[in-house]
Amino acid sequence: MTITSKNRTDVSIIAHLMRRAAFGLPAWELEELAKRPYEEIVDNLLEIQNYERPNEDLMDRFYLEHANEEDPWYTVKKWFYRMINTKRPLEDKIALMWHARFATATSKSQPLMIKRHLEMLQDGGMGNFKKIIYDLSHDPAMIYWLDQQTNHKYEINENYGRELLELFTMGRGNYTEDDVQASAHAFTGWTIEQTIPRYPNGWYESRYIFKENDHDHSNKTFLGKEGEFGGNDIIDIVVTQPATGRYVASTLYEFFVSDTPDEKAIDSLAKVYFESNYEIKEMLRAMFNSDYFKQARFSRVRSPAELIVNTIILNGQHRDPYEFGMRYLLDASLDMGQELLNPPTVEGWHTGHEWIDSSFLITRVNFAVERLTDLNKPGVIKMIQHIKTMGNSFTTNELLDASLYAMGCWELQDHSRKVIMEDIGNFNLKTNDKSFDETVTRLFGYIASSREFQMA
To answer: What's the rounded Cα separation, in Å, for the pair 391 and 354?
Structure first.
C-alpha cells in the first residue's frame, strides 16, 4: 500500500481542519490541499473573497418553487446546494453557527425576511462582531421574531433588549433586570414597515425604519454607564464587555472545536476578540492555528446539516443545479432534529450528544449508509478508484484502513474496529477481484454506521 505514515499524518490534520472549517472532503481532494503548508490552507479558507460563490441563479431556471414567495424551503434547498458545492465553505459554516445563536424562524417571520436574514449571516458572519450585532438589530426578521415592533416609548417590550444581552452577546448572569429594561428603552422606535397582507400581490421586502416620535430619549443607566442612550449606544457598550468577549469565544469554541469547554482556550480566544477589535476572522485564524484545535479531533457531534452535506460531498450527488431530489435533504435534516431556517425556540437547537439520541441516531445512520454504499454514485466510484491506486492486493485490515482514508481520513476506536473485523472476517482481496468494489462499499457502510462517523 502507498499510504505512508507521513502522508497519513499530513492528510489527517488537513482532514480535521476541513471537517471543522468546511464540510469534509474525500482523500483525493485532501491530498491536493496537503501539498501546501497548513497555515496557508487556513488563510485560504479565511480569505473567501478569492473564490466565487456557486452559481445559484441557475437553480431558479430549474426549480419553479423560487417563484413562490410563500415557500421558504426553496431557500433551504439553495443553502444545501451551496454548502455542497461552495469553494468558500467557511462563510456557510459560520452562518450555520450564527443561525443557531441568532435563532430566527419561518414559523413566525415571513419567507422573504428569513431569506434576507440568512444572506446577512453569510455575507457578514466572519466580519466585525459589532457590525454583526448592528446588522442583526436592524434585521426585519429578527425585529419581527422578537416582537421589537411592539416595543414603544410608553409601553416597552423587553424581548429584544433581553435576548441581545442573554443570547446574542453576554450570556446569563452578566447583567441585571434594570439593564434589560434600559436596553429595551434604548431600542424603542426601532421597527419595520407595516407588513401588508400577502394577498393578492404576494410578499414584499420589509425594511427597518426608526420612528423618532416613538423613541425614549430620556437618560438611562446601562451596565454602570449613564446617558441618553439609543440602540447603537447599547451595542457600543455591550461589545466592549469582558463577558461578551468570553461569550463570543465560547460560541466559536463549542461550534468549531469541542462540545466540552476548555476555559484556557476560551480565554485565549477572548483575548484575540479584544486585540483584533472584535474581528471574527482573526479569532478563527487564531483558533484554527492553535494546538488545542489541532488536538481536538472527533471531539464534537456533527449537526444534521454537517453530516448530510459531508455524506453528499462523499457520494458525489448534487454537483449541478439540475439534479432533482434536493427536497429529501430538507426532510432528512428535519428527521434528524434540525429544520434549517426554523429552529424550535429563541435558543436555537440543543446540540452535542442531544443530536444522537435514540430517535435521531437511526435516521442519521440510515441516511449515510444508504448513500455511501451505492455503487451508482459518482463519489463512491471515485473513492473506490482511489483505493485501487494504493495497491493491488489488500488484507481485510488494510482494506479497512484504505476505506477510512479514502472517505476523508476517519479514525476508528479499537472497539469499533474489532466489531467490523469480526463481522467481515479475514481474507486477502485483489483489486481485480469481482467482489472488490462490493466489499469496499460494504466497508463504507460499516464506517458510516460507526460511532466515530457521527463525530467531527
So the answer is: 41
How far is the C-alpha of 304 from the C-alpha of 49, rounded, in Å?
27
Domain ranges, ordered by start, for the chain: 1-50+301-456, 51-294
Mean per-residue pLDDT for 120-129? 98
Other Cβ atoms less than 10 A from the Cβ of 243: the count is 18
- Alpha-carbon Rg of the chain, whole angstroms? 24
DSSP states along 136-196: HHT-HHHHHHTTGGG-BTTB---HHHHHIIIIIIS-TTSS-HHHHHHHHHHTTTEEEPPPP
**pLDDT surpasses 50 at 6:** no
Q: What is the mean pLDDT of residues 145-157?
A: 96
Give, in order, the Cα–Cα distances in Å from 193 to each of 157, 201, 326.
Answer: 18, 17, 34
pLDDT at 1 > cutoff 50: no
DSSP-derived secondary structure for 13-50? HHHHHHHHHSS---HHHHHHHTTS-HHHHHHHHH-GGG
Mean pLDDT confidence for 347-358: 91
Q: Are the C-beta atoms of residues 157 and 189 closer than 8 Å to each other? A: no
- The x, y and z cell numbers of residue 160, run together, are 429584544
